[in-house]
Write a structure and sequence with these properties.
Elements (H helix, E strand, L loop, with lengths): L18 E6 L4 H13 L3 E6 L8 H9 L4 E6 L1 H5 L5 H11 L7 E5 L15 E2 L5 H11 L26 E3 L12 H12 L7 E5 L6 H12 L5 E6 L3 H9 L1 H4 L8 H14 L6 E6 L4 H4 L9 E6 L10 E4 L5 H11 L5 H10 L4 H12 L5 H10 L16 H15 L1 H10 L5 E3 L2 H5 L7 H8 L1 H13 L4 E4 L11 E5 L1 H9 L3 H17 L11 H7 L14 H16 L3 H19 L4 H16 L3 H19 L4 H16 L3 H19 L4 H16 L3 H19 L4 H16 L3 H19 L4 H17 L2 H19 L4 H17 L2 H18 L5 H16 L3 H19 L4 H16 L3 H19 L4 H16 L3 H18 L5 H7 L14
Parallel strand pairs: 1-2, 1-3, 3-4, 4-5, 6-8, 7-10, 7-11, 8-9, 9-10
Antiparallel strand pairs: 12-14, 13-14
């Protein structure tokens, strides 16, 4: 290899420069810059390529992309280079062997670490630069690139350029030790570098500003270490107070070799003059840390050829010849990477969850992650503690941050009290909203009567209000956020951003008298903002803004009727918007609080039970909703009589619970008296009467009375359109119910037409991921599947299931219904193994959620038996389907469509295992019962007839089989058409099977 080396110096004019690409971790930027500078002085063209290694991109692909870089690739090896991602040594070893080993000459490497590195790094043949001087390091780099080394003129001290990374600047003082856990922030570091170096001479001042805890000091320290090779003087000053700043700046005098007297004022003047003139050093960097009061020190900030880097909570530095760079919290990727380095035991999911809870604030992530790594506490348990209130024993202070977070904020609050006391009042008001974005405009928009005297001036005087907000902004306690409120937007449309930890510290540090007055004001502000119509989708954004603040305003302990109405309306909004889990939690807390506050039988408590039970039922928790509503119904009947509207409302809920529990006959009987009661009391066109009529129709559908259900749904739909308008959520719900009945009757074309329109309007009115929209899309997918468009149906089923799981979870009844459809589709048109896995999971979830004997469990077993049949487990499938048939018959009766469907499948399995007589007897009885209950040409009856023909052939009764088959085919062609998939399948003598489809409430 040495024979191929050639000497090189300055490139001759007209000769193309040889290129070297340096790949380096941002942490080692100083080394990369120095090596590049040395190579460029020797005539090479250098390309700098910072190694990012995003975790979602395979390491092999990253290395292959790196190999495409210009010229020879020189990798700057350090432990940081291998940690990015983060990646394990095993991953690195595999990738290096795959990508580098086949062509090692494409790469070269130098090492600047003594830490353990992947063993396969040997393929890069790195040369060690640790513990070397600049000349020896330069020689090793040059020779590793297979180029002959010759010293250049002007060596050592006489050769000016970037400082060797291992060498300290001539003057260095006060700089914190380097944070070896520093993560990310690459764009901010680059922005800071370019802002300082791109400034005019004498104007190189940059302020890193942001709220406490975002890592301003850490970012400034990392900037120093990365770019210190470009400075001869680096001096760090605590600039919180003017007196401290003056003293520390004066202490630079002897370090610069300035001859002054002992008085520090004289030294201070000498330092400022030396920095201004650039003598004895032009390349200087001053860091003013914690300079939150620009008015106190701006006149002492040096000017000259060097740079000044300021950290501050105060953006007013922009008014004092400083450029500004706002420092936000970590990006989520940065948070996750930092946590996983700080706490290796946490998974990526744990890290993401913790980052979200701590809102990506670097200080809190550092304080928390290290402690969690050494603790047995799970992230979920920690977050529960966090939400319950911060305790200093829970959030420990890291050694890197010597002043406790709580203490720092106490100091700041005292400062605010001394300057603008109203700013503290405003801050305390904010703590009765949820942390994060605080809609302070609600305070300004609420009625201003009967305000506490302490707050009257703040809320009524715009000048005082703006002064308080500006004071909080000045210290980065809050951040002002403007929201687009439309054409009439004004400053009242603004909100403040308050971090969770700041929120809790201020909330805990409050006199009890203030607490009582302030929480009452916020409750009244929220109540005044109640739009009053929770079913109006146009108002959902307003409710979505209000709901997060209910907990922090402690609205459940208010005896104000307006506040209680707000709670009820928010629960109703959460039901219609599909926010079921959050609604159930709020409802449970409200019921406990109101029973204690108002008494168990207060009218408001019954209003609450109605809303709470709706949410419980929406999650499938019938075991809790049924006794709750039944107790309310019984008490109201005894106390007020059967014609009381609150009693009828509770009875309506009881009927819906009976559906969920699989007690379909009881539910029908229940609604057969409830609907007339509403009609006689309120008339046919009252919305409550229509709700009862809708429920009566669904009770008929659940019992397989599809034509009767269709007639009721049609009437309900027409009346709701007339009374509530066509795009009201209830009208859209009735339309989807009508389309479902059309499909269950086998009128697939009509059903798809109605459902397509309904889906379009649900998406427009309710939103794409609202449960009602997903329910409509699920029915549309089934319409397409029954109509023969399998491709479109399969794609839509997959999308619906994925969104259901994301929106309401994998144990929700609607999610399970979608999963059932997807599993059946996969069995016939997809991956049988995937179908089996899904089916087993569905069955297990139903068995956990429902009691044994529920028709949904029997139906899921019937579906699973078909999968077992498809994979060759005939005997197991036969036993399981017979069990499903027996359980379904016991649950809903032998003539219910569910039982008829199970019988069709059971006869097929009997035929398959050789019980041809049993199969024929069962299919014959099934045809008889299906014809009686559904009619001769219903799709389920037609399937039973085709199946019976197959069983007759199994008995070798060919003549009768032909007769039954031809009659069935004739009816199929007349009902569905000659080219329908069911007709074609029957003509090909493919035995039909029945897929159980759960009808959810």
């Amino acid at each position: 290899m040495s024979g191929s080396r050639r000497p090189f110096g300055l490139t001759e004019r007209g000769t193309a420069k040889q290129t070297v690409t340096i790949s380096f971790a941002g942490f080692n930027r100083a080394w990369a810059a120095w090596i590049g500078d040395r190579l460029e002085r020797r005539g090479l063209r250098v390309v700098y390529l910072r190694w990012d290694a995003p975790p979602e991109v395979p390491l092999v692909q990253l290395l292959r992309d790196l190999s495409l870089a210009d010229g020879r690739v020189l990798i700057l090896i350090s432990d940081w280079y291998f940690k990015l991602g983060p990646r394990t040594h095993e991953e690195w070893n595999a990738a290096l062997r795959e990508v580098v080993a086949p062509d090692p000459s494409r790469f070269a490497a130098v090492s600047v670490t003594t830490a353990s590195i992947p063993t396969a790094t040997a393929v890069l043949a790195p040369v060690d630069l640790v513990n070397t001087g600049p000349d020896e390091a330069e020689r090793r780099v040059v020779e590793r690139l297979d180029l002959a080394y010759e010293p250049l003129p002007g060596t050592g001290e006489n050769r000016r350029g970037l400082r060797f990374p291992s060498a300290m600047p001539e003057v260095w003082g006060g700089v914190p030790r380097r944070n070896t856990r520093f993560t990310g922030r690459e764009p901010l570091l680059n922005d800071a570098y370019h802002l300082l170096n791109g400034s005019e001479p004498g104007a190189g001042v940059l302020t890193l500003y942001g709220m406490s805890g975002v890592g301003k000091t850490q970012l400034a320290a990392e900037y120093v270490y990365r770019f210190s090779s470009e400075y001869d003087v680096v001096w760090w000053i605590n600039a919180e107070k003017r007196v401290t700043y003056r003293r520390l700046l004066a202490e630079l005098a002897p370090k610069l070799g300035l001859s002054t007297g002992a008085e520090y004022g004289e030294r201070l003047r000498a330092v400022r003059d030396a920095l201004r003139r650039g003598e004895p050093f032009t390349r200087w960097l001053l860091i003013l840390d914690g300079a939150d009061e620009p008015d106190q020190i701006w006149d002492l900030v040096p000017t000259g050829p060097g740079h000044v880097l300021i950290t501050s909570r105060n953006p007013q530095w922009g008014e004092h010849n400083s450029r500004l760079l706002q420092i936000p919290v970590y990006s989520r990727d940065e948070s996750v990477a930092f946590i996983r380095r700080r706490a290796p035991r946490l998974t990526e999911a744990d890290a993401d969850q913790l980052a979200e809870a701590l809102e990506d604030l670097p200080l809190l992530l550092d304080q928390t992650a290290g402690w969690l790594n050494d603790s047995d506490l799970s992230v979920e348990d920690y977050i529960a503690l966090l939400e319950g209130g911060i305790d200093q024993d829970v959030v420990r202070v890291s050694a890197d941050f010597p002043v406790a977070f709580q203490t720092a904020w106490s100091i700041l609050l005292n400062k605010l009290r001394e300057t603008v006391p109203e700013s503290v009042d405003l801050l305390r008001l904010c703590t009765f909203f949820a942390p994060g974005f605080i809609p302070v405009r609600l305070l300004r928009e609420m009625p201003q009567d009967d305000l506490p005297e302490q707050l009257t001036g703040l809320l009524e005087d715009p000048l005082l209000w703006n002064r308080a907000i500006n004071q909080l902004r000045q210290y980065s306690v809050v951040r002002l956020e403007a929201h687009d409120q439309g054409a009439d937007s004004a400053s009242s449309g603004e909100s403040l951003y308050l971090h969770r930890m700041v929120h809790q510290i201020v909330r805990n540090d409050m006199p009890e008298a203030d607490r009582r007055e302030f929480v009452d004001v916020v409750r009244r502000a929220l109540a005044a903002a109640d739009p009053g119509r929770a079913t109006d989708t146009r108002l959902w954004d307003a409710y979505a803004e209000i709901v997060p603040h209910l907990k922090y305003a402690d609205v459940l302990n208010s005896d104000d009727r307006r506040v209680q109405t707000l709670v009820l309306n928010c629960l109703r909004y959460m039901y219609f918007a599909g926010e079921y889990t959050s609604g159930v939690r709020l409802g449970a807390r409200a019921l406990r609080a109101w029973r204690s506050l108002l008494g168990e039988f207060h009218p408001r408590v019954f209003d609450l039970i109605y809303q709470y039970a709706n949410l419980l039922r929406a999650t499938g928790d019938y075991e809790r909703s049924e006794p709750l509503e039944r107790a309310a119904m019984d008490h109201l009947r005894e106390d007020r009589g059967e014609r009381d509207l609150d009693h009828l409302r509770a009875a309506n809920g009881v009927g819906a619970n009976l559906w969920g529990l699989g007690r379909y006959d009881e539910a029908l009987e229940h609604y057969q008296w409830l609907y007339p009661a509403y009609r006689d009391l309120l008339g046919e066109e009252d919305s409550r009467t229509l709700n009862a009529l809708n429920n009566l129709g669904f009770a008929h559908r659940l019992l397989g009375h599809y034509q009767h259900a269709l007639d009721i749904d049609k009437t309900t739909l027409e009346m709701r359109r007339r009374l509530l308008k066509a795009r009201h959520p209830w009208a859209l719900f009735s339309e989807a119910s009508y389309a479902t009945c059309l499909r269950l009757l086998g009128r697939y074309g009509e059903a798809e037409s109605v459902q397509t329109k309904n889906v379009r309007e649900c998406r427009l009115v309710m939103g794409a991921d609202n449960p009602q929209t997903l329910r409509a899309e699920h029915n549309l997918a089934l319409c397409r599947l029954r109509g023969g468009d399998r491709s479109a149906a399969g794609a839509l089923l997959a999308r619906v299931l994925e969104r259901y799981e994301r929106k309401v979870g994998d144990r929700h009844p609607e999610t399970l219904a979608a999963a059932v459809s997807q599993s059946c589709f996969a069995r016939e048109h997809g991956d049988i193994d995937q179908a089996r896995e899904a089916s087993e999971s569905i069955l297990a979830r139903y068995e956990q959620l429902l009691t044994e004997g529920h028709p949904f469990i029997a139906g899921a077993r019937a579906n699973h038996a078909l999968i077992l049949r498809s994979v060759g487990e005939r005997d197991h499938a036969h036993v399981l389907v017979d069990q499903a048939l027996a359980d379904m018959t016991a649950a809903v009766g032998e003539s219910h469509p569910y039982a008829l469907g199970c019988a069709i499948n059971a006869s097929a399995l009997r035929n398959l295992v050789g019980d041809t007589e049993g199969a024929a007897a069962l299919s014959r009885d099934t045809v008889t019962r299906a014809t009686e209950s559904l009619g001769r040409t219903h799709p389920l009856t037609l399937s039973a007839r085709v199946a019976h023909a197959a069983d007759l052939r199994g008995l070798r009764d060919v003549q009768q089989a032909e007769k039954v088959e031809q009659e069935a085919l004739s009816d199929l062609e007349a009902t569905l058409g000659k080219q329908h998939i069911h007709t074609i399948s029957a003509r090909s003598r493919n035995r039909p099977y029945w897929d159980f489809e759960p009808q959810t409430t």
